[in-house]
Amino acid sequence: MRLVDRLVLLAIVACGCIVVSQSSPLDPDRYLLVEAEPRAALEDYRLNEDVWPSHYDIEITPYFADEGTKKAFTFDGKASIRVKTTLTGISTIKLHMARMEITQWSITRVQNGADVPRNPEAYDPETEILTLTVPSPLTPNEEYLLNFVYIGNMDEDMHGFYRSYYLENGQKVWMGSTQFQQTHARRAFPSFDEPRYKATWSIKIIHTAQYNVFSNTPIISALSNGAGRTITTFAKTPAMSSYLVAFIVAPYQVTSRDEMGILARPQAQNQTAYSLDVGLKLLRALGDMVGYPYTSVPEMTRMYMAAIPDFSAGAMENWGLLTYRETNILYRPDDSTSMQQQRIAAVISHEIAHQWFGDLLTCEWWDVTWLNEGFARYFQYFGTQLVEQNWELEHQFVVEQLQGVMQMDSLRNTRPMTHPVYTQAQASGVFDNISYNKGAVMLRLLEHLLTPERFRTALREYVRDNAYRAVRPDDFFTVLNRFEATVKMHLEPWTVQGGYPLVTVTSTDKGFTLTQRRFLVNELTHNDNTLWSLPITYATKAADFANTQPSFHEGATITLEVAGAADAPYFILNNQQVGYYRVNYDAGLWAKISKALHSEGFGGIHVLNRAQLVDDLFNLARGDVVPYGTALDILEYLKEETEYAPWLAAVNGLTTLARRVHEEDEQLFKHHILDIFGKVYGVVKFQAPATGERRVHTYLRQNVLQWACNYGHEECSEAAVKEFESFFQNPTVKVNPDLRQVVYCEGIRKGTRQHFEFLWNQYLTSNMATEQILILQGLGCASSKELVNIMLDAITTENIRPQDKSNAYTYVINNAYTLPHVSAYLQQNHAIWAAAHGSYLNVASAFNNLLARLKNDAEKNKISSFIETNKAVLGTAAYDSIKQGLDDYETNKQFTTKNRDEIRDFLKKKADGGAATVLTNVSLIVGLVVFALSRQ
Length: 936
Prior knowledge:
It is a lipid-anchor; GPI-anchor. This protein has 936 residues and is α+β, with helices and mostly antiparallel strands. Among the domains are: 50-251, Immunoglobulin-like (Sandwich); 362-496, Neutral Protease Domain 2 (Neutral Protease, domain 2, Orthogonal Bundle); 506-518 and 525-628, Immunoglobulin-like (Sandwich), CATH 2.60.40; 782-935, no CATH class. The strands form 10 sheets. Strands 6-9-4-3-12-15-14 form a 7-stranded mixed sheet, with no helix packed on it.
């Protein structure tokens, strides 16, 4: 019987949210959801605990073309779910379904196969919950089968069981793949689609001969159905959550060795060697680290990793069948950068780590997503480090993860790691930097607290004790407390409280006083009295930085007695930035730190603490805690810095500052940039990486060249243009991959339309997804209205895949010269943009990202007039969103106006050749003391 009208189920807003740009569980900062107000009571979005599944039999028959009455891009499905209840009086069964038409359903007793009488079903398209009712209560502890026959849809939105394609000789080759996290398994089969409902799964795919099929477990049989199709049956899975089920129907080939295989389209087989090699090493190294080899799970005799052309997530941890964007798994050394290689290794490590932290042990519900993603993000760095030991990944972790999450966690609207979740939009929303980065940061803190050996032992016990279970934070803390009795007391508050503290250090006669207060970057004055248990380490000399095992201190004010404090060359808190907090110092201490930074060897200050000081100074100035003049003056030390981590922190801070520098002061800022990058440019030079070069030195070069060329460094620009012109004249002689980003960008910036069309043709004909990303970055550097419009037109076409459209747009607007052209384009082509991206909320997103970079009132006013004229077309949600973007523009403008004099005075003094060591000026030290006291 027909359960609901198909059109109702296909309603775009059935999930309670509108996707503005595609999600990336690996890259949560790329996630943008506009959350609708829940239209049901929050508790109604969750299933009850009356009935539990134990096993699913699923059969899928996909159609990639019309076949008789079967429509292309639909699939026939059959599902049989074994369930039982332990309770008495249960006469309703609730489970999920979405975007499908159920044509038949029944309930039968497992014991004798007898049908169970049933009442009419009910379906709520808002909560996506199907309610089945029986006249008489179910018998406790007796097993029943829920049987469904249904028709599903392979949509193009990269969720559920969806369709994708790749080109072969210019023709589309269609394929089907899955992405079920967080709540999309229900689009492929009726299911108890919450992570706590673990069950075993038996999958059958009925497919035509030109397709190969893959799932979580190995194939156990492949038999003809007598009607031109093959019935491929996969082995039963271990008990696992619905979101981890996966299957692929594609004419893919397999490159395999031992227990691992890489799945890819035939033309990409030459790009799989590195991922296969590093994947095997990681699978074994991580299994050894957690003391639970992957093949300890009897059903998991092999692992497949698949490269998917269209994939909303960066990658996905389906047990035994990991899926990836092509950019995150396909690699060839002559066409991929060193950073892209690291990215591939790190993504593989992230997903393989999930085989234990997420698959074997699964967060009980998405409110504690960090129990999955925090571990995976931690091993993304420290798992990769097990097999690629020369990449200095801990240094990268501190800047990219710890400092990165501090940005969003310093806002009032941040959230705790453990946070209530009910609706689909809320479930999607917690896949953010708080769950990923902050979760990983807390694990690194635990490792330093317990010591690496004890931390590893604790992880092993946690995995062994909770295998095949759905877990809560208490399960983790219970194990940790066996090794350190106060772990839960000290660490749990960091998981249930949002934000982090600013610790202010002042000198005393016998040592130092530490005062903690929540850091809110936009609210210097606030009444939030949240306190944290502070992990304290400190250094007064170079040797001290090696001590990273913190002691915890409670209270708003902490007193540290330190012998010889007054005579110490400096006092720096939080060795190697293991703790998660910012630090401000009184004027005298900042003066000592500045003197050390400006001395030979930076006074022995550890490279990670130099990165910490850089990041803190930029953000303390932004938060009005330290004057911009003081911060920029101390940061003049960067003129002598040649290490990657401090420069990466500096680039992050300078990117934010560059957007807020007054447009009339940009020439002064340009002089400042070229000055501080002068020495490091001379160190890295415009050259290909040398054999045996430190990996982070290669990364440093990429950042330095990008900034130098962007700000008009003549030698950089000339070298890049020369490289591009050589490539343009002879495309068979390629640019070194680690120079391509800056060469492509500068070649397009200084080139002609002919150069642009040449590079665009390279994009269209490239077989390498990593190369296509580099080309899009380069094309985004075009500045003329004509070329910007061509680029924006391209983004609205099929030539740029949906997963790459958002990035391609970002590459365009990161070029400040394009902003007026982009604004005009969006106003003139808003309907085309909305159609290409799915909704007018995508138009709003495009305008808001532009407004965040805009400094021109005239352009802002044009956008304001546009939305008033087109309010009805935009719709309320998009209109309100852009109105907020316009308000944010005014907030940014006020920030620029407020800080302009101080920033300009520093830049002008520097441009005029003024002395730079502000903190050596006694009168300014006195002024800083007054400033510091006024902030207490």
